[in-house]
Design brief:
single chain; GMP Synthetase, Chain A, domain 3; ten-stranded mixed sheet; Spore_GerAC_C_sf; germination
């Protein structure tokens, strides 16, 4: 009987919330909410919080040809395809968000927000206080992407897109689409919260900027993922380019796929594109005579994706071996570039070295962590790379 009672209670716990969700997305209720798709955070000259919010217009995206136009380039409320752009200010993020309702005339609704963009100058002052509301309030979701803008976040939020009626969706697709290069990163609110609570590793976030481009004879501005923002705990300290970003990801064991271009060993010196199939890494800290040393071992498996050297004898073991050496050299160069800037110059731990040291040397870590930002600069890091080419595709020659 007790088991039956417990079973009934469990069923009620799971079924009751579902009853509240049934039919919740009718048109009347949608019209009573301002459904946020993206938020930009900047600071004003007098240190107020400035929020630029991309609000969904359900009627604009459900009816073909009903886009409100507007371009999203003006001030105040402007239509931008399937969204409305609202700008509000306040003493805090929460205050600014509430102030947006004066213009929206509806309750701001955050569960479907996809993107939070923080302006470059604003990020230099620290992002932790700016994200506190989103981490504390139950509405925002942990899978929201966090980006740092080169310039103002407002410019990114006001952008339009030819193929997507909701620009935030285009930004989301850009983030997920560039992961196959391993030269860009994808970081969400949940991952940021873990890093901020850890105090061992430092943060890195997706960078984005507005670029000028010619389109049908006219100059337009459009967003582009731009490098990786590197933070000292929560303060923006600098940027990694694509090669440095991948160097960091090699160390962390987070390179999934991508292309490495090397010069062919053949007589005509054409280019060869080597496709990354998979990769792994090991970070091994050691203590020698009281001095901390770290060895990074990276193993990569790849294949020949393209070779532009007609005279190359691609199917010989010697050719493969030389390509592997050249690929190993590129990987090592990328890793060393990331270490030189991140470890030696900035003293940030975006490589999770502290976590590995803590795991292997817990007693020594108690002292090392007190001044880890300086300690990490003096660590000797040895890099070992092993690359293996498995195959050369369907043909041995480009002809």
């Amino acid at each position: 009987m007790k088991k039956l009672t417990k079973l009934i209670i469990l069923c009620l716990i799971f079924l009751l919330p579902m009853s509240f969700l049934t039919g919740c997305w009718n048109s009347k209720e949608l019209d009573q909410l301002s459904i946020v798709q993206a938020i930009g955070i900047d600071r004003t000259n007098n240190e107020q919080i400035s929020l630029t919010s991309q609000i969904l217009i359900p009627s604009a995206i459900s009816s073909p040809g009903s886009s409100s136009g507007g371009g999203g380039t003006g001030r105040g409320s402007t239509g931008a395809q399937g969204v409305l752009i609202l700008k509000s200010t306040g003493e805090t993020v929460y205050d600014a968000l509430k102030n947006a309702t004066y213009e929206a005339d509806r309750r701001i609704y955050l569960p479907f927000n996809k993107i939070i963009v923080i302006g470059e100058d604003t990020a230099k002052g620290g992002i932790a206080p700016l994200l506190d509301f989103f981490l504390r309030d139950p509405e925002p979701r942990g899978n929201t992407y966090i980006l740092i803008a080169r310039g103002n976040a407002e410019d990114i939020i006001r952008t339009t897109h030819r193929q997507e009626s909701v620009p935030a969706k285009a930004l989301e697709n850009m983030i997920t689409g560039t992961l196959n290069t391993s030269k860009a990163v994808e970081v969400n609110l949940h991952e940021v919260s873990i890093a901020l609570a850890d105090h061992t590793s430092d943060l890195f976030l997706t960078g984005i900027e507005m670029i000028k481009q010619e389109d049908q004879g006219q100059e337009i501005k459009k967003p582009k993922l731009s490098d990786t923002a590197i933070l000292d705990y929560d303060k923006l300290i600098g940027w990694f380019n694509g090669q440095e970003t991948r160097g960091m990801l090699w160390i962390r064991g987070e390179v999934k796929e991508g292309i490495i271009v090397v010069q062919s060993p053949g007589p005509d010196k054409g280019k060869v594109s080597l496709k990354i199939i998979n990769a792994s890494s090991q970070v091994k800290p050691e203590m020698k005579d009281g001095k901390l040393m770290i060895t990074v071992k990276v193993k990569e498996n790849g294949t020949i994706g393209e070779q532009m050297s007609p005279a190359a004898n691609i199917d010989t073991p010697e050719y493969f071996k030389e390509l592997e050496k050249r690929q190993e050299r590129v990987i090592k160069e990328e890793i060393m570039a990331a270490l030189e800037k991140g470890q030696k110059e900035w003293g940030v731990d975006i490589f999770e070295f502290g976590e590995e040291v803590h795991r292997k040397f817990p007693k020594e870590w108690k002292e090392l962590k007190k001044n880890w930002g300086e300690e990490i600069k003096n660590i000797e890091v040895k890099v070992e790379v092993e690359s293996n080419l498995r195959m050369f595709g369907k043909t041995t020659s480009p002809e």
